[in-house]
Amino acid sequence: MPVEAILTAADEAVHRRRASDFQGSLHVGVDLGTAYTMVMVLDGARRPLAAAYQFAQVVRDGVVVDFMGAIDLVKQLKADVESRLGVELTSAASAYPPGVSLAEVQAVSYVLEGAGMICTRLIDEPTAANALLGVENGAVVDVGGGSTGIAVIENGQVVYTADEPTGGTHFTLVIAGAKGISFEQAEALKLDPAAQPALFPLIRPVMEKVATIIQRHLRGLDVPGIVLVGGAAAFPGFTDVVADVTGIPTTAPSRPMFVTPIGIAMLHEDGAGDGSLT
User: Fold this and answer.
1) pTM of whole model > 0.85?
2) Does 163 share its domain with 249?
3) CA distances from 248 to 1, 88, 163 (A)
4) Over the stretch 151-173, which tens digit does the pLDDT of each residue have?
5) 253 and 227 in one domain?
6) Which of 22, 26, 243, 245 has the most neighbouring CB atoms within 10 Å?
């Protein structure tokens, strides 16, 4: 199934109210993001079946800062998806930004366990994204809410990863400061297509900072192309800024926020959700 078709299916999965006619095992990914947390469920053929996400600041720069809040949020999203599937999700994979400490990586698994799921696998976010994208040679850059994760891929294998602060949340902070509005209002404005052209000059310096981070980590490496993923990658003009600063052709798929959660779910092998809800 082509990447764009899978991303379209993921968008449909978010809005699908009933998805109980699946066959085979389910594959579940939980993405604890700085801005958005998402539960993504794929069917046995790794096609999006049901998904739910919500804006919440329970994670900061890849670190769980509100442990109980994160558990409650994952429980809520899990219950939403379970109600549509008619089965219990008993295990899931999750992901973390490259470079975070082992203790913070383990905290991600503890959140899933607190929400009632066994964490069967933890993957760094750019590697998870490439499970869907299938880049053979190039760089996958996951611009999350709080940080930018970079993976360099050679012959289909990740050979280098890095992560630094600065991401989509910084776009929102700049907008809030410039407009004199709340963070929540700025986040909504950032996502409004009608407002984005006027916002671009405000947040271009943040885009350039992200691009400079990418450029520094890719210096001296043979990288024929960059693929941006993560919610921030959807902002019009971002790929052009990265290409201008790095000198490397840069693209982003449609609905880039779904790429990493889908990749996480694709790498969940245990097939959660075999039983009925109790």
Assistant:
1) yes
2) yes
3) 28, 45, 19
4) 999 999 889 999 888 888 999 99
5) yes
6) 26
